[in-house]
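User: Hi! I have a protein structure encoded as tokens and I'd like to know what sequence might fold into it. I'm fairly new to this, so please keep things simple.
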């Protein structure tokens, strides 16, 4: 893959001295879905606003498709579609007029067949003549995506795209995002829903206090940082972990009926075989066992600590 967006030493300091972005460096590859994770106030929305030309950077450089966002503003802005957090729409406009007007604002010639394709892909075609005030919150959010796609951008920013929608609609939105990616659109999304990033992203970038602290492929990140747990359901309760098992990272839970062993799943030796032998030697018997991998949420909380 080649970089579509390149962010170098990006800094944004507002009047009053608050630094929202502090030397951010990030490469967004063409055709990928990048999830930008971070706690409230971490700098996610500010970074998007700078790249989209809404907020001026204090220092640093950003290019989109090789073009500078300051020197080639019109060109870079036309390459970007933005879906903001807020449901900002003209309540009395129809869906069709909304997306048509948005396309025209970018100097694009009318293309009804393309807009029809966009609305159908977002399950909005049967609502094309409906006024926005008659639509549900989820449908209005789909209209925002249609507006952002109306001028055929190469990259789509989704700022909290499923905020305030129910789980079922959220999953349908994930399917829309995946379909857009398959059509060649590069997608950057910010989200508070860890499962959203885990479900659809190719790479994860974590931002905290205005700095990118990690960028990694999702699968590699979970393999590198994810811990595993072996849970043993005991036949008889234990009052305490036997001294003979002190070398293992064990936790006693469920009123002494469950032992949890934490280990590094990527290590050459996990210690499980030795643990099984030690359990027998110490007279600890179990009736069932199961393993589980740390979730992306566990990893995220570990990275940003108390700011999450």
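Assistant: Happy to help. Inverse folding works backwards from shape to sequence: for each of the 308 positions I chose a residue that suits the local structure. Here it is:
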């Amino acid at each position: 893959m080649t970089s579509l967006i390149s962010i170098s030493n990006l800094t944004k300091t507002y009047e009053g001295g608050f630094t929202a972005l502090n030397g951010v460096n990030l490469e967004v590859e063409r055709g990928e879905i990048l999830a930008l994770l971070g706690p409230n106030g971490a700098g996610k929305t500010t970074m998007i606003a700078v790249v989209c030309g809404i907020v001026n950077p204090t220092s640093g450089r950003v290019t989109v498709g090789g073009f500078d966002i300051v020197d080639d503003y019109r060109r870079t802005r036309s390459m970007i579609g933005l879906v903001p957090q807020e449901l900002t729409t003209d309540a009395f406009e129809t869906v069709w007029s909304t997306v048509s007007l948005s396309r025209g604002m970018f100097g694009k010639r009318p293309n009804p067949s393309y807009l029809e394709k966009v609305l159908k892909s977002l399950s909005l075609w049967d609502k094309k003549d409906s006024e926005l005030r008659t639509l549900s919150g989820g449908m209005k959010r789909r209209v925002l995506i249609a507006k952002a796609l109306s001028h055929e951008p190469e990259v789509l920013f989704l700022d909290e795209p499923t905020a305030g929608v129910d789980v079922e609609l959220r999953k349908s939105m994930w399917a829309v995002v995946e379909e857009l990616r398959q059509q060649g659109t590069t997608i950057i999304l910010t989200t508070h829903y860890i499962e959203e990033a885990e479900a659809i992203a190719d790479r994860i970038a974590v931002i905290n206090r205005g700095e990118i602290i990690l960028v990694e492929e999702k699968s590699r990140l979970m393999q590198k940082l994810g811990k595993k747990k072996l849970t043993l359901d005991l036949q008889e309760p234990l009052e305490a972990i036997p001294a003979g098992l002190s070398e293992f990272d064990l936790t006693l839970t469920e009123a002494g009926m469950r032992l949890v062993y934490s280990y590094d799943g990527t290590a050459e030796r996990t210690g499980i075989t030795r643990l099984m032998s030690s359990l027998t030697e110490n007279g600890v018997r179990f009736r069932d066992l199961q393993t589980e991998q740390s979730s992306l949420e566990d990893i995220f909380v570990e990275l940003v600590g108390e700011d999450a």
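A useful reference point when you look it over: The CA atoms of residues 252 and 259 lie 5 Å apart. Feel free to ask if any position seems puzzling.
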